[in-house]
Every structure is written in structure tokens, then in C-alpha cells.
Amino acid sequence: MAEASFKEIPELFEVDLGEALTARTEVLSTFRELGPPDLCHVVKSNGRSGQRDVGSYHYISGVDASSSASLAAYINSLTYAIEDNSAWFSKGSTWKVKNGCYCCFNAFSRVDIRVDVKIPGGVQAYVIDLRGERHEATPELWQETYVSALLRAILYSDDPNYWLDAYRKLDPITTPEGEIRFLQAAEGLFMKGWQVGSDPEIQVATIISNHLTAGIMKYFGDSGRFQQAANLFEKLTAKEPEVASLLARSYIGMNEEVKAVQIMSSSIQKTPHSYTLLHAQCDLLRSKGRQDWAVKLARQAVNCAPSEFVTWEKVTECWIDLGEFENALLTLNSCPMFTFNGRDVHRNLTPAKVHLPFLKPIGEILPDRVKTEDDEADPALLRLPAPGLRGTWARAYALLTRLVSQIGWDELLKTRSNVFVMEEEYRMQKAHVDVTHVQNNNSAGGSGNRVIHEDGTVRDSIISGETTLADHGDGGDDDNASTRGIVSPHSPRSASVSTGVNGSGVGAKEKDSDNLDPPPGIPMIRISTESDRELDGDGESLKKDEPVTEPEEDTTKVDVNGETKPKVNGAFDADDDKSGLEKPAIAAAGEEDQEKDSSSVQAPGSESFSFSNKRLCERWLDNLFMVLYEDLRVWTIFRAEVAHFKTQHVAYRKTGLEWEILGELGLRLHHKEEAKEAFQRCLDTPRYSQKPWAKLMEMYSDEGDIQRCIQTAIRVAAYQWADYTEMTEIALNLVPTSEGVQQRPLNAWRVGAAVEWDWKAILSMISQGIELLVPVGVLIIGLAILYLRGDRGPLPPGPPRLPIVGNLKYLTVLGKPRPWRLFHKMAQEYGPLTYLELLGKPVVVINTARAAEDLLVRRAGNYSDRPRMIVGSEYMCGGLNFAIAPSGEIWRKMRRATETQLGVKSLIQYENVKTDEAILFAYDMLCRPEKCIENVLRATASVILSVVYDQPPLRSLDEPSVHIMDDFIHKLNRAAQPGSHIVEAIPVLDYIPTFLSSWKKNAKRDFQKFSSMFLKEYTTVKERLVGEQRPSLLAKLLEGGSRYDMTDLETAWAAAITYAAAYDTTSVTLSWFFLIMIQFPDIQKKAQEEIDTIVGQSRLPAFSDTKHLPYVTALIREIMRWRPGPPIGLPHASVKASIHYTASSILTLMVDDLRRYQDDYYNNQLIPAGSICIPNVWSINRDPDIYGADADEFRPERHLNPDGKLKDGTGEGHFTYGFGKRECIGKHFANKALFIDITMILWAMSIEASTNASGDIKIPDISEDAGEGVILHPPPFECRCRPRFVGVEATLEQARNVVLSAHHAH
User: Fold this and answer.
1) Is 1224 within any annotated ligand binding site?
2) Which of 761, 825, 1239, 1273 is least surrounded by CB atoms within 10 angstroms?
3) What spans are recorded as compositionally biased (Basic and acidic residues) (predicted)?
């Protein structure tokens, strides 16, 4: 079936042939509005007898659906898209498309247009109605289908809540002629637009509010090209005056506000009942700061459409603008809410196979689409109910969050208690009134009719049809909650009240001269004001500062349709609330039976209980308060944790998904800066997600940050392309002008004194690959580059540079011992960044943890490349050393494969191997301490060879495999040492022929030699796969096979590079451990005391002890911080890619050009494009802002809290493993190996300084470190290892014999 797949088109393979078409026919009657995306079904055959045909399908939008010919042309285009994996000499039959069927839903007539294509053969078009019957396709149906398909392509293109597997999105309009055609079709069907439905916030679709008008405004409005829309609406206004509201909005978008006002002024006389026209005026007034006028228009719009949510929403927004928060809350309570109906979808079928090809030209700059630890999140974050809100419920919640952002949670609760009756308050007052009334009845002789129950309620003892609640009072004044939210019965302006749509109270015409008079015959709905609420004709008003009784926790949550459901496994437990937020009390429900009981029963002479002062809160709004409480609670805890970690100088870590959720939470609660920081932190993780890039793009656009906006837009476009969206719905709408950066809709492209760039149009047109637009696109991109590189700003400080050669003298210094000392001195003089130039090549040395995190982690997408290393990477390693190789397909494959096998969970299977090696290591140290370094090297090599190649424990360092790897590591370190080869500084020397370049000849010979040796180990492991063997990394890579898509040579090199990377770090850290234990015996003793407490003397240490030995872990972290193996990290470089000057890959051209010439800025200092960035790990690990003023001292306690626990259980406590996407993949392996080795040594022996012939203790000077290449080695030293307790030698020897016996048997 793999041979039957399309090359770059996603598809789902059927279990039963034709089941997708059958399922679509069966669910046609369920399509309510625009319908689902088009369905393209094909049948493939390879021509072999007895071979069954294969059926597959994919969803698509954007195909021209104006005729059967255009749909048949799409199916014919698929015949050239099948993957051809057969070799030229192969005789096998290839798969071909046999026939196909294209299905497109007509949202106007509610039918499905289908085109059957036989290849070769004819084309048949027909219509399937909702009953599944066939009909003939007419020209009118084709026009409706064409517009329906366009609307789906436009409106579904960037809907984050609408996701389908194998959904391909094409650009529906690719030429100016196509745009004109769309406008003509829209004009012909405009009066029928209400038939296609409307957004879920609109209760009743009209000719103004529907999907057709939404699609027109989205297509032209997002790109700021309102002129075309205005031309269309100008013609339609003559037929339908209400279209003037859309025309006015178009002119406002074109910055022609005077014209828009004239249109609205003349149209309001013709259509005074148009709420859309009133809203257009209202929005214009709000933009001009006239909130008082805007609210009058919004209130009048409510009278025109009282059943529409959007009219009440607009009034609420105006009240918030005016600071009338009580009125805003009351109006929000009155909003009519609708059940949410999502977009139409197909029936989900279980496919036999899912084919989602990886689009390499663009997808290479994206992280791998694989599930990692960063796709996991705390259940409390996953269970937040707010992201599940849709439709009117989401819009109402947005208003509530806007309220709380302006007045705060405590003030919102106070406002809530001022305007709404709380449930406890309601019950107490109701019980008081009922008891008083019964007492009065009993005194009058009516004791036989009413009974007071134990719960305080009053009921009739005998049901009588003659006695009604109405007999005891006037219940007509009690409307439902919506009425109470907007009507003040005691207001003199509301003398007569009747019930309107949705139970809304309808009053008489307003008489105030300062308000606009509604048209005759239209009842006016009164919205209660502060003065209204203060009036109470029956008695005193209820006090606003009444205490709120806290009820039991609300066990309901709101689902996507706004309905309440029991909360399962609540997101947060009340006992764990650390936010300090007051939980909202439950308001009294607006249920009619409760209202009548409470309002109609009154006792003479008692205090009245009137709803004219307080209203009953709708239950849905009460539920939204609980949703808001959960959001605020999580956010408060999150910010408190961030502040705490910052004061402790510890990195605050979350997974990628958690950062993304917190970013969305910040946006919901209007904390934009904190949300932006969360999204930026999300980009530091290798998680495949478009959302953080899209959110940051919007934020940078709002801020007018052109450069970062373009950078994020490129990523969003790449994600869309990788997700089979061959169109870019990106609206940057940025205008760099002489006055500064502005954000406003664009209406032209002009290059002059004030340059205007319509980025939406640029990205859209270039991505389409139109041949005629190639030179235009390149020209505009060139202008953008020149603009962005104009005033580049100051460089970071650094030593003086000579002409041409720059700071070339430092290149030779880097080749001398201890070059990190020089960098550290520069860091103290120049600060976070040091700037050097080597023959015109910019080099930036990063000296602080903050700068390294900001650049190499948070901006990892720009600094994840490696500079070109001609000798060490290209020739000696053939480009297969993924640790130093530039970004590309090979690097991506090899890193993904090894990173998967060296993850925390994958390494559990190797714990027994590491424990066995630790036992052998401890035994060797106890028996031969004078050979400390040799023992360290043997133990390190042995454990890595065991894990990587499943080799038995090494007896000595004379093994051939050790010599090969030592030779490889030695030559690699020398090649990586700065200044070792002049060709690295002068790349043009690479063009010298091999026979004239000894370095090139030697490097190529080394590559052949090492490749042969690595393949030999590879073959050995591969041959053992047929039998039983212990797990090994290479075996897992072989078992991965096609999943990793690596050749034999790439797999062999991946295993070898893993060995080399782990060997240096682990062996050097172990060597430093012994020397440090000699220097600091008190620290050694403290670690041994912790081990004795947890492990004791009766057993050996194990990995299960890790979480119980925090001091040992802190000791290891401090060793790696204080004496990092690589004191200078491997250099990073800005991401680059090759440029392809073809129309089909013009988007790649745009990405590469902008990225190639992309400068960056940090603390207002320029980091030139293409800079080599060197992390100064030695200085970063001594950053006083992180580690305190005593960072130069060795003190493990700095990694512990006062209670003795680790400060950061998920972090490393140092920066030795590197940064961002180039972080060491073997860090978990090294951590585990170091823990078990060091714990075993400390458990078994005491490490002491050796003595000379005269008995004097020899303690070497620890500051005299030795550097070779890029590795920091300790100075030569000797040590003694003394058993810590009786029987330890026997215990280790017995364990050693067991290990060796097991391996011998294996």
C-alpha cells in the first residue's frame, strides 16, 4: 500500500472500497450551514490480476467548483502525484489512479454536487439531495456550489477549532480575474446569502449577517483591500438599503471616515431599525472616544434586535468603556444565550492507513512532528474549562474577563453582590417572609392551610385549586432574570412593562431629551441605571456591603455548548488553593417558581423583599464566574511560582504544552506581557505547534515590531505549508512610515518617502507561485531587506579590531591552554556579550546565563545552526557528525533517532548495565587507587560500549575498539580547536585540489578509516539481532528502521558520535570528582552521611535511591558547574538554508532570504546576521546573578533549599550541557552514569590525598587545570581509597564476580 500513496498529498486509505462516499451520503441531511470541506475520493489500481483496487480519500478546499471540468481537472492532476519508488530496472507494475469522485456541498440549495471521473474515460456530473436521490446539475446549482466552496475555503482556512486529518487547503483565488469572478458571483447570490447560515453568535441569519458577507469582509478586510468590497456594496445598497452598514465599514477600513459618516447618516433615515447600521455608528464613536454617545446607539440597537446576543454584547462593551461596571454586569446577565452548533463535519471513519507526507522544502525549519515530553501537561491545566467555551458563551466570558482585568477580582465580587441576590441571602429572606406571612395567617384563623417545614419552607397542607400564589400578591411584576437585569419597575421612565422576546421586559418610549428617539411603533427596552437601582418604592434598598456567605464548591462546569455538567475530577481541590483568591459565592438562580414564592408572599408591616434593588443572576453567568475563578486561581499560583523561583535564582521550567496553555490563559485574562513571555518560552521547546508563533505574530503586529513580526510570520507560513495549507492567511498589516511604525489597514503598495508594504498580499501572492509575480515578489523582499538593514544600531562591546583581520590574534590565543580564562576576563570587562571579528566574520561571545537563555534558548529557532567546520565536520566526518553538523535533513534524522533512544524513559532499560559497571569501577578503585585516571577512562568507555554496542565489560584500555574511539575523539578535538586549520578562517582554500592539500587528504582518509570501523561494529550488532541479546542503542536504531529513515552508514555514525559525546563529559567529570573530594573532605563526609542514612551498609546503592539523595545530586551538579568539561561551548550560528530561485519554491526563497539577512538585537545591541555565537560556559556557570557572589567557590548547598531538597528538580543546576536545540542529547545518560558511579564510590570508600616518600600529604593546586582542545582536564594527581567499613571489599568482590559470571555466560 505504501507504493500507492501520493507523493506530497495527504490521504486516508479505506478499509472497504467506497465507504467514504457512502458515509458522506448518509450524513448529508445533518449539514446545517456551509457544509464540510470537499471530499476527493480516488480508486487506485496496479493492473495486476488478482490484486484488489485500493480506495483513498482526502479533504480539500480551494478547488474551483464552478463546473464539472474544473473538478475533473483536479482529479486528473492526481494521476501525476503518486509516489514512484520503483528503480529503472524494476519490472513491477506501478499504481495508477483508476477513477475518482469529487464531492462539493451546495450550501444554498442543500445538495451535494458530485463529479465522477474515469481515467481514461468520461466525466459525469450529478446532484445528490438530502434523501440520496440523483438529479441533474443546472447552471444555477453550479454557481451556488462555486460560491459555497469559496466561502468554505476562506472561512475554514484559519479556524483553529476545525481540524481534520488529510485536509488540504488550496488558495481559492489565484488571479485578479478570479477575484472579479468571485465578486460577480457574490453579487448574484447576495440576496440569498441568509440561506447559508451565519456565525454562532447570530441567532437569525439575515442578508447582512451571514456567512457570505463574513467571507467577503474576511477576504478583503484581512488584507486591507476594502475598495473592491466597497464597490460591490455600493451597487447592492441601491437594492437593499441595509447593506449600507457593510459599505460604511468598508469606507472606515479605507480611512475614508467622512464618506462613511455620510453614508450612515443618509441610510439611517431609510432603515432606522437596522442594528448593524447602529453598530457601525457605535464602533466609530467608540474609536473617537465618545463612549457616552456610543452607549445610546447600542441601547437603541437592542430595541431593534432584542433576541440577538450581539446587541446586548455591544451595550455591555459600552458600559465597560464608560466605567459603569454594575450596568455592564446587569446587561451581561440579560444577554440571550444560544446553544453552540459547530461547523459541519464528515463522519469519522477508521482508516486502514493514514498517509501524511512530510513536505521537506518548508518543513525542515520546523521541529519534528513527534510526541515528546513537551506534549504533556499538568492535568490541572488540561482541565481548565474556559478553552472549551464556544459561541455566545465564549463571547460572554470574554466580557467577564475584560471586567475583571479593569476592576480586579475582589471589586468584581463586590459589584456582583451589589447587583445580584446571593443564594444564601435569597433563602434567608425568603424564609423570613414566609414565616412572617404564616404567623399572620394563623393569627387570622388560617392556620390549617400553611405549614412551616424543618428546612424553613412554607407549603400548603392541602392542595387546593382555589388557592394560588397570585391571591397573596401581585406576581406580574416578577419577570424572569433577563427582565430583572434590564428593567427597573420603579423607575418613572418605565411606567408600562410587557414581556418581549426571550422574556425581555419591553417598556414605553424614552422621554429623555439627551437620548435618541426610537422610531414610532418600536418598544423601548429599558436598561437599569445606578439611579434606578437606588429607588425602591416599597422600602429601603438592600445594603451593598452585605456579607457573602461562602457556599460549598460548585460542582458544575460549562461545556462547549454552554450547558452545565457535573465536574469530574475537578481541576483544583479547595484544600490545595494557594492563590489567595476569594471563591465566588453562588448567586440565587432565576427560576420562575422561586421568584413567585419569594415575591408574592409579603406580610403587612414587614420589610419588603423587592427585586427592584437586586436581580437574580442567570445560572449560566454564575457558572462563568466559577470558570473565571478557576482561570484566575491557576494564573495567580503560576505568577507566584515564577516570582518565587526568580528570587531563588532558579530557572522556572514547564513543558512546551504547559507554556502554551499558560500563554493562552494570560491572553484570556488580558495579561499580554506575561502571555508573550510564556509563548516565547514555549518556542524554546522542540514541540511541534503553530499556535505560539501565531499568537506572537499578532502581538508583535500590535506592538509595531516589524522585524519580529516578519520572523514569526515566516514560521507560521512554514507551519501552514507543512500542514498542507498552500495558502497564507497571515495579516500583518504593518506600515513602516517616516513617522514611525503604525498598524492600520493598507490600501496600496507604494515605495517612496513613506513606504507601505501589504505583507498579507505579499505572502499570499508569493506562496501561490505565480510566474508573473516572481520578479515583483523578489523586488519587494529586497526592499524589505534593505529597510530592515538600514539603521542597524550599535554592536556589543569588545576589544579593538584591526582593519581587515579584525581580532585575528585571538584566534591563535584560542589554540593555547586555558582559552576560557581569556574569555572570562573579557566578560568581566565587556559584560553579557563580547564582540569579535575574524577576517570580517562576526563572532559574539555570550558571557551570562540570562543572555544565553534569551538568545540560544528562547530564540533557538534563529541560533540552532552550527558554523561551517570544513575539516572536522565536512571531510573527517563526511557531514555525519550531527553534534557539529549544520542544520539539515541528516542532522534532523540522526538527532531525532538518538534523542529518542537516550530519553529518560528509554534509559531505564540500561540501569542494570550501569549498575554492573559501577560495581566494577568501585572494585578497581579500591584495589588500584594509584591508577585513578586509568580506572576512570576504562569504566567510562566500558559502560558506553555496553549501552551503545552491547559489548561485555572492558578488562583494560588495550581493547581495539577503545583505541579506535580514542583516536577518533583525539583527532576530532584537534580539528575542532580554533586555529588548528587556516581553511576555517579562509574558506576559499577549500577549492585547492586534494593532491595539493595535505589536510584535505588526511581528513578524507580518516573518514574512510573511521567509517569502516564504525560499520564493522554496526554489522556485528546487526547479525546478533536474530538471537537473544541485551538492549543496546544501536540495536534500537536498527529496529527503528524505516521510522528513522537512516542509511546503514548514518546509523553507524550516529552510534559512534553518541559514544564520543558521552565519553569526554563523563570521564572528565569523574576525574574532577576524585580531585575535588581530596580538596574538600568535609563535603565528602557530608555526602557519605546522607548515603549511610538512606542505603546503609547491608546493600549496594541503586537508582531507586536517587530521589532520596539530594545532597549527592547537588554535589554532582556543583562539580559540573565549577569545573565544566567543555568550558567553552560549541559555537552556534544563525539558521541558514540554500536559496532556490524557482517559481514553485518562491516561498522557500522568501524564507531563506529574510532569514539569511536577518539581524538580531539584544539589549539594543546588534548581533549581525550570520554571527558565530560562542557560549562562554566557564563564565556562565559563574554568573553571580544565578549563583550568588560566591560563585567561584565550590559549595553544593547552593543547589538545595533550606529544607535540604533540590531547588529545581527538573533543571540541571548548570549550563554545561549546552543550550536550545543543540543541547547535549546524552545529558540524561551522563547524569545517570555519574550518579551511580559517584554514589557507589562514596558508599564504599573514603578518598584521601596520597603521601610522598617522607609521609607528607600531596594536595595538588586545583587551579592549575589543563586544557586540551575544548575539554577541561584536571591537573595530574594521586589519591588513596580507604574502605569505609568492614566487609566492603568482600561485598564488592562478590558483586563483581556475579557481574563477570553473568557476562561470561551471556
Assistant:
1) yes
2) 825
3) 529-547, 554-566
